[in-house]
């Protein structure tokens, strides 16, 4: 046992230990013993970028598929955030248990979905992957400005096209989207008891008063969430805590106050979780190689009805700016999959059908294509990531290519002398970012904030 883990056990609040002993009874010692183990690292595979077979062949670090979780892997890479597969949006590092709430629910590819408390974006990524194979659209909301920026960055990195990101309160979302969504995920802010092993600093913030404060806040969030869920729609409620007040009592609140009923959970999920109440699942580290998590699937009473998606109410791109866009990114440009709009000082690329827009609070709308400045169109990083197929020029680098290290640290690299203008740098066929080819050199257009620093 490391000194750090010994310290965690010694510093667990007495009241927390009492509560856990009541919950777990004879299994408490097995639970406590998990604090002697380092957290297991896991990731989700973005199958809209690369399938499992391709990933396993391309991976140059050790991986092992996670039982009962589609496209989930344990890994041992010490710096996954600097790996080309991360930069390419192929992988998203995420706790094993956190993969279960969305991974165990049959999301329909054509639904309108709301992730109400979305940052940093792991569960949003799982949902967006499913919706990217159909006509579905995701509204991903995060009110905290710094966490919202992280959310936007992750959505851009993963290459999703059909996501609207907002920075609104739950009440503002409910006012803008009454009875609108087919599915809502509420991964509620909580007391974080399930993360004590991974984030020991959170132990010092724990108290029963904070548990009760979180529970009251969760009720306010759920009050708003139920207003924007259509009759017959579905709600996934999850937390990373063990507190009954924030878990099963919130489910009771939805059933009693807002007329929901619980839905069954797949047997393979039930096999690796625990239940105090039927169909309310608890993930414990002594049952599964992950941190703590609670989740339940509920359906709102009423008749199933869903409104179709509509065209977004935005200003269409001018002919002049569209010509500049075409001129900048090459002759193979194909607009069949999207429509271009102008919003503030940016040009956006959106699917033909999209979610209705709120009156304010938008931080990302579909794909930011770029902007026109001084008579020239400059593509945005997200256009290279989400619509790499629109570029006629591509440079594909294989694993261990020295040029990849050079590119990810912000340097120019050598390229095909026949190339001219903008193109996409790829890793194993997946887009990393953009460049501009000039006289056999590929000028780096990878954002400074995302680069690796040696």
- Helix count, DSSP H or I runs of 4 or more residues: 15
CATH homologous superfamily label of the largest domain = Vaccinia Virus protein VP39
Structural class: alpha+beta
Percent helix among the residues?
Answer: 25-40%
Q: How many DSSP E strands?
A: 24
Q: Describe the sheet with the most strands.
A: 10 strands, mixed
Low-confidence stretches: none
Oligomer: single chain
Q: How many domains make up the coordinates?
A: 3
CATH architecture of the largest domain: 3-Layer(aba) Sandwich
Shape: globular
What share of residues are in beta strands? 25-35%
Describe this protein's structure.
- The protein is an alpha+beta fold.
- The protein folds into three domains: 98-300, Vaccinia Virus protein VP39 (Rossmann fold), CATH 3.40.50.150; 310-392, Nuclear Transport Factor 2, Chain: A; 393-454, Roll (Archaeosine Trna-guanine Transglycosylase, Chain: A, domain 4).
- It is 29% helix and 25% strand.
- It has 15 helices and 24 strands.
- The chain has helices spanning 3-11, 14-24, 28-33, 52-58, 84-87, 100-103, 122-131, 145-158, 170-176, 208-227, 248-258, 267-270, 319-329, 381-386, 402-408; strands at 42-45, 63-65, 72-75, 91-93, 112-115, 137-141, 163-166, 181-187, 229-239, 260-262, 274-275, 280-283, 293-300, 315-316, 339-343, 346-350, 362-365, 367-373, 376-379, 394-397, 413-414, 421-427, 430-438, 441-444.
- Strands 5, 6, 7, 8, 9, 10, 11, 12, 13 and 17 form a ten-stranded mixed β-sheet that branches. Strands 14-15-16-18-19 form a five-stranded antiparallel β-sheet.
- Helix 9 runs parallel beside helix 10 (208-227) and helix 10 (208-227) runs parallel beside helix 11 (248-258).
- The longest helix is centred in the middle third of the chain and has 20 residues, at 208-227.
- The protein is globular, with a radius of gyration of 23 Å.
- The two termini are 32 Å apart.
- The model has no long low-confidence stretch (mean pLDDT 93).
């Amino acid at each position: 046992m490391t000194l750090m883990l010994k310290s965690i056990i010694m510093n667990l609040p007495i009241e927390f230990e009492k509560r856990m002993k009541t919950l777990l009874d004879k299994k408490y010692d097995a639970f406590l013993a998990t604090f002697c183990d380092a957290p297991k690292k896991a990731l989700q595979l973005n199958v809209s970028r690369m399938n499992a077979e391709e990933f396993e062949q391309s991976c140059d670090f050790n991986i092992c598929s996670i039982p009962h979780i589609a496209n989930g892997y344990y890994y041992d890479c010490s710096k996954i955030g600097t790996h080309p597969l991360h930069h390419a949006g192929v992988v998203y590092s995420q706790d094993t248990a956190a993969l279960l709430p969305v991974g165990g629910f049959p999301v329909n590819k054509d639904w309108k979905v709301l992730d109400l408390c979305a940052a940093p974006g792991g569960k949003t990524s799982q949902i967006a992957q499913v919706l990217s194979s159909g006509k579905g659209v995701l509204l991903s909301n995060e009110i905290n400005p710094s966490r919202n920026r992280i959310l936007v960055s992750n959505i851009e990195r993963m290459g999703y096209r059909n996501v609207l990101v907002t920075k609104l309160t739950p009440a503002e979302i409910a006012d803008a989207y009454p009875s609108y969504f087919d599915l809502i995920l509420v991964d509620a802010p909580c007391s974080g008891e399930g993360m004590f092993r991974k984030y020991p600093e959170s132990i010092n913030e724990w108290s029963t008063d904070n548990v009760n404060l979180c529970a009251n806040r969760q009720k306010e969030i759920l009050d708003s969430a139920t207003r924007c869920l259509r009759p017959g729609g579905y709600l996934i409620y999850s937390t990373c805590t063990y507190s009954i007040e924030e878990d099963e009592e919130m489910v009771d609140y939805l059933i009693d106050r807002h007329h929901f009923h619980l839905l069954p959970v797949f047997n393979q999920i039930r096999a690796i979780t625990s239940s105090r109440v039927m169909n309310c699942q608890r993930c414990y580290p002594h049952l599964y190689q992950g941190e703590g998590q609670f989740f339940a699937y509920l359906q709102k009473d009423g008749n199933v009805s869903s409104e179709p998606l509509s065209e977004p109410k935005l200003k269409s791109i001018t002919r002049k700016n569209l010509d500049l866009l075409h001129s900048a990114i090459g002759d193979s440009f194909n607009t069949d999959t999207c429509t271009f709009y102008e919003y503030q000082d940016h040009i956006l690329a959106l699917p033909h059908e999209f979610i209705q827009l709120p009156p304010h609070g938008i931080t990302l709308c579909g794909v930011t294509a770029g902007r026109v400045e001084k008579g020239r169109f400059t593509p945005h990083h997200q256009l290279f990531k989400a619509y790499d197929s629109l570029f006629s020029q591509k440079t594909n680098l294989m694993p261990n290519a020295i040029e990849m290290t050079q590119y990810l640290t912000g340097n120019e690299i050598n390229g095909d002398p026949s190339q001219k203008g903008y193109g996409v740098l790829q890793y194993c066929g997946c887009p990393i970012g953009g460049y501009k080819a000039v006289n056999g050199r590929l000028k780096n257009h990878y954002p400074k904030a995302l680069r690796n620093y040696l």
